[in-house]
Automatic annotation (TrEMBL):
Residues 504-600 form the Fibronectin type-III domain. InterPro entries: FN3_dom, FN3_sf, Ig-like_fold. Coiled coil: none annotated. Signal peptide: none annotated. This is Fibronectin type-III domain-containing protein. It comes from Ohtaekwangia koreensis.
Amino acid sequence: MKKDRLYIFITLLIICCTALTGYSQRTNFVKAIGRAQKKQILIRWAVNQPRAWKLSNQHGFEVVRYTVIRDSVILRTPERKYIGILKPAEQSAWIVPANSNEYAAIIAQALYGESFEVSSTDKETILSSINKGQELEQRFALSLYAADQNFTMAQLAGWGLTDTDVKENEKYLYRIKSKVPSGQLVIDSAAVFIGLKDYKPLPEPTEVLAQFSDKTAVISWDYNSLKDYYNSYYIERSSDGKNFYRISERPIMQMSESDAVKPSGRIHYVDALGMNNVTYYYRVRGVTSFSEIGPPSAKVSGVGQKILEYVPHITKSVINEAGELELSWSFERAGNALIRGFTLSQSPTEEGPYIPVIQNIPATQRILRYTKLFPTNYFTITADAVSGESRTSMSVLVQPVDSIPPQAPQGIRAVIDSLGVATITWAPNTEKDIYGYKIFRTYVKTAEPTPLTDTVYIGTTFTDSVSMRITNRKVYYTVTALDQRYNQSAFSTPVAAVKPDIIPPTSPLFTKCELTGNEVLLRWSDCHDDDVASHVIYRKSEEQKEWKQIKKFGAHTSGEYKDADVAGGTVYTYTLVAGDSSGLESKPSAPVSIKVIRRPGDITVNAFDVYIDRQNRYIELFWRDSQDNVEEYQLYKAIKGSPATLWRVLKREEKRTVDEKLAVNTEYSYGIRVVTRKGEVSKIKWLEVKY
């Protein structure tokens, strides 16, 4: 190994890595990662502080493996396997690898060197000027960098292991603990949960780009998305797209991720090309902390080109009386022979994109006119090189005079919710120079609208807050459009937003409730609210718990209703509810009650009939009624010419009876009356039977 070359490499690393050690938190802990391969598991670990690194190298790291899952079942008691205490190999074990591997030399020097230097012929070097107080941090940082680049050397240093005693149907927990006594320094342990089934092929680097210029190519690729896989990368180049070779001996890495220097998310590398006008191909491969090299990225290619030496400059850009752009530019006459001509490009914004609008302008021309202008324009002039890269001028701003306002906005809609939040929407204007809108409100359609914004509003949806306490039901909105010159359109057609109805109607009022014959007469005063839509009468008897709707009227009623569906001896209670067009209901009116008097004629059976069976010598009596409070039925019997006597008393469930004590050629009179639970007695209904 050439020591002077290694010295230069270490010097550059120290300069870059000095930033790496300053940002870490002072808490001491072990950090570990794992990688499953097809037949083995690789574990790699490190501590996060220089002092913890030094002490852990002295005392070692204890590694214990626990088998946690077997055949997809979690073991009740994990199986423990003691792997051992791993320390850096003795100094003598580093002699051979250090002579052939620069990463082994760095780790060995960090672990065992009396001072962290690499021998050189120079008496005064950059390394010798480093503050001795930072020497431990340099040992720490560079040894970890070297271990990240060579997993074999990381294992020799006691900072990694390869476990081949593994099975595909098992999953393991590796616990790595620093053996530094807690009284000397507290260092948190680490763990990795992994199994062979966690193996995944390494991904390809993504978003690889190549930008070519004069004998130079800038290669860049996405770093952030794959930083959990790769810590460094190799760039490979080819001149035929088939045979690739690495352009550097050492992999390329992102050296700093400190809070002070936020990474861009991409790595950039500048490669020098052998010559211009030759196609070069590039691809990128990632390198893991376990020295695995991932698959190549997709190829990118390009050609280095000589940059045109001369650059055009726009010197004049004015609008003439005809509304045309007059544009002139300067360009060295010596460059005329090097270009095909000029191209005028236009964009409505400074950022672009710039679209070519006039091409093939002669190389000797320096002035032109252009008429297809936007309200705001940015122009560039490009000198189109015969060969190599063209050159483009700085952009200039051109704004023609504009006094024509945009059209009034269309499609205005406004909706107010129950909380008083109004949402106003409209269709966007189609003018290219539209800037924004102003929204106006009024509570009276013919009144002057009041602006709701102090500045131009960007967007086509606006929210407003209106008072729900104000009695007006409608709020009117209108919108104007403004262009980039602040020309304002006429008002849009006003649109009315109707407030949601949250106030129920007033309750109607009963004015009379009386019994007229067999009907209950109800009279009331209507609800007179503007939005009243209905009046509904509800009734219940003293035996009912729920109100029952018996009649529904419209917004305006006669104020009178006769309830004929009533039963004597029952107390009825009535209430009246008004409803509005929004479905809200008033509070029920003050209820009114009335008792319907029961007359004796009201308490009777509906039908009373007889069946005579002379062959079997009996008479069957049967009846029906619609009474719901019957206590019993009393039946009377008499022979014609004799007084009637109480013959039988039957329960309310019984609706028939048979008389077998009969004499031939005799006329009988049968009577029935109803006795209610309240003790009321109906009239007797008689039936004459000739047997």
